[in-house]
Amino acid sequence: MSSRTEQQEQHGQGGQGGQQASSVTVLGLGPMGRALTTAFLEAGLRTTVWNRTPGRDKELVERGAISAPSPEAAVAASELTVVCVVNYDASDAVLRRAEVAKALKGRTVVNLTADAPDRSRSTADWAADHGVRYLDGAIMTPTDSIGTPDAVFLHSGPLELYREHQPVLDALGGTHTHLGEDPGRAASYEIALLDIFWTSMAGYAHALAVAKAEGITAKELAPFAQGIGAILPPIFEDYAAKLDAGDFSGDDNPITSAVSSMHHIVHTSEAHGIDASLMRAAEGMARRTVGRGHGADGFVRIAEILGDRG
Amino acid sequence: MSSRTEQQEQHGQGGQGGQQASSVTVLGLGPMGRALTTAFLEAGLRTTVWNRTPGRDKELVERGAISAPSPEAAVAASELTVVCVVNYDASDAVLRRAEVAKALKGRTVVNLTADAPDRSRSTADWAADHGVRYLDGAIMTPTDSIGTPDAVFLHSGPLELYREHQPVLDALGGTHTHLGEDPGRAASYEIALLDIFWTSMAGYAHALAVAKAEGITAKELAPFAQGIGAILPPIFEDYAAKLDAGDFSGDDNPITSAVSSMHHIVHTSEAHGIDASLMRAAEGMARRTVGRGHGADGFVRIAEILGDRG
Fold first, then answer.
1. Residues of chain B contacting residue A35, judged by C-beta atoms under 8 Å apart
2. A180 vs chain B: nearest CA distance in angstroms?
3. Of B154, B172, B107, whose CA–CA distance to B134 is shortest?
4. Which of A37, A117, A307, B221 could form a disulfide with A184 if both were Cys (CB 3.0 to 4.6 A apart)?
5. What is the phi/psi pair of residue A47, to 5°?
6. What are the Cα distances from residue B95, in Å, to B19, B91, B184?
7. What span, in angstroms and rounded, lies between the C-alpha atoms of B31 and B277?
């Protein structure tokens, strides 16, 4: 264990153990964990790694990573441990082991594992009970964005703790946004954003299948599909403003038009024997909103009806 | 009925009746039909209009449109009739009336009504049987884009006929693409593109509802939602190339990761009592692909499995 460095003081680093602030531990060496480790190594940080399944660290060790024999040894090697495993069942299975919890006492965990917000909050409670300083985050961009300006990280938890570790987190590149003290907040944003992403991707996969059945190659559809992608962001912004303002006016685009369009898509898909359950679900959401008497309203009314549990 | 103009000759205009090429008839005065009429009027075309429900043409007549007393009188007033009604049941109900079919003989119909491709093909067959020259198109952008560079029109049917009427269609602004001689081709593209659009919009509406339940306003989510929208077009292009090439490699983003992410979204949505049928359908598509032994493949494998009816 080395003594504190100037950098540590500069960031107001507290905690116990006296490791360099320019050191970090990464638990989990899946594709994302490896990308995080690589970015830390390239930033010149002393990086200790551990993975449940051995052997994943070979290439990283060749590039300068320190392979820890156990998770407790790994977390003891740095003030800051970044966790990125498959889900919170997996992160709990490592962090909540008695030896690991003991070694983490007074140290900081930044959990970048993806899961539901309630799991983030539960882990934050556990951390508080065990004297572990805890931040919860989300990575919104693919592995190849890590270490580049394209990476997008969301963070939540104590702002002061976030600021303390920001210099190390900045080594991961991209933009980092602290969204609030609620430890589940980064995961809440992640869930909502991935809801948009995966639904859109599923819609695209379905559209490619329908296009192919209609004799249109993916390459032929691509420029027009990109055109659809390009019109979404301004519509997203417009609808956000309308929803927050409670403006559900349909103007020239009532929900009934959307329902008609969705029905043609279901018909064409099923005429080709292609499963249309995704569009059927979308159509169902729209039809239920029409059934509640909002057929002349704009599409954004669907968001309000979905969230209305009365 | 006026005599032919130089412009008519220039465009190689055939047909009967001898109206000016710089004249057009619009059937259907819903929001889109009114926008089309306005663009034709602003381009200086002699524009005749008719709508099933009377009274919709008042403002257009004040701006110079000619109100026809019947659909047969309307189509007789121009070489080119543009149809934009709610669906093909509605366009059939007008076009296939004996008096209208008779008046259309030798003239051209451009049907911009949205529906399924099989309806376009059926109407093209009917037109051929009745000596009506027929083009079928789709409008991919909202009413407020009409007459501006943002408008996107897709066309299909005989290329020569399309070229003949292109100068009048160009009055609608935007970009016009002729996609092929199959009269259903514009509708096929439209179905595939609206599949992406409406699925994405439904996902966005759902995400807004989940975000709200998590205490996130639409405005707070908006910049990140726009970020998701911005990464879609390049992913669409990448996946199109992979699908056409039969490249289903998962690399660092296997379908199993998507399934895990989708599961967290369903869990969080339903924990708030918010219907998750849309994401459940997307998850089902992904899980069926995993179940077929493709869990390590990339997401684009889902498009192939959806289209595989074996």
1. 252
2. 11
3. B107
4. A117
5. -120, 120
6. 20, 6, 18
7. 32
A133 sits in which H/E element: strand A133-139
Taking one residue from A and the other from B, the number of pairs with CB-CB distance under 8 angstroms is: 368
Q: Do B87 and A239 touch (CB under 8 A)?
A: no
Yes or no: say if A221 and A208 are a contact pair by the CB < 8 Å rule: yes
Interface with B, mutate which of A86, A118, A152, A201 (most B CBs under 10 A): A201
Structure confidence at residue B309 (pLDDT):
65
Give me the amino acid identity at B91: S
pLDDT tens for residues A13-65?
Answer: 333 334 445 899 999 999 999 999 999 999 999 999 999 999 899 999 999 99
How many whole angstroms separate alpha carbon B124 and alpha carbon B143?
25
Helix H or strand E encompassing A180:
none
* Residues paired with B24 in a beta bridge: B47
Report CA Rg, chain A. Answer: 24
- Cα B84 from Cα B26, distance rounded (Å): 8
Name the residue among A86, A197, A300 with its Cβ closest to that of B205.
A300
Give yes or no for B36 touching A (CB within 8 A).
no
pLDDT in tens, B152-195: 999 999 999 999 999 999 999 999 999 999 999 999 999 999 99
Q: Is the dihedral of CA B251, B255, B256, B260 positive or negative?
A: positive
Beta strand B133-139 with B152-156 is antiparallel
**Total-model pTM:** 0.89
Reported ipTM: 0.89
Chain A residue at shortest CA distance from B117: A268
CA–CA separation, B242 and B299 (whole Å):
10
* pLDDT, tens digit (0-9, with 9 covering 90-100), for A244-262: 999 999 877 899 999 999 9
Alpha helices in A170-254 (DSSP H): 185-213, 218-245
Nearest-neighbour CA in chain B from A10: distance (Å):
31
Contact A203 B200 (CB under 8 A): yes
Given a contact cutoff of 8 angstroms between Cβ atoms, the answer to whether A93 and A120 are in contact is no
Please tell me if residue B309 touches chain A, with a CB cutoff of 8 Å. yes
A96: nearest Cα among A134, A54, A67, A39 = A134
Q: For chain B, say whether A256 makes contact (Cβ under 8 Å).
A: no
Residue A70's φ and ψ, nearest 5 degrees, are: -155, 160
Q: Do B261 and A198 touch (CB under 8 A)?
A: yes
Residue of B243, B283, B306 to mutate for A, most A C-beta atoms under 10 A: B306
Which residue is listed with tokens 């390049």? B234
* CA pair distance A31, B232, nearest whole angstrom: 21
Structure tokens at B30: 């819903």
**Residue A57 distance to chain B (closest CA, Å):** 16
Cβ atoms of residues A221 and B240 within 8 Å: yes
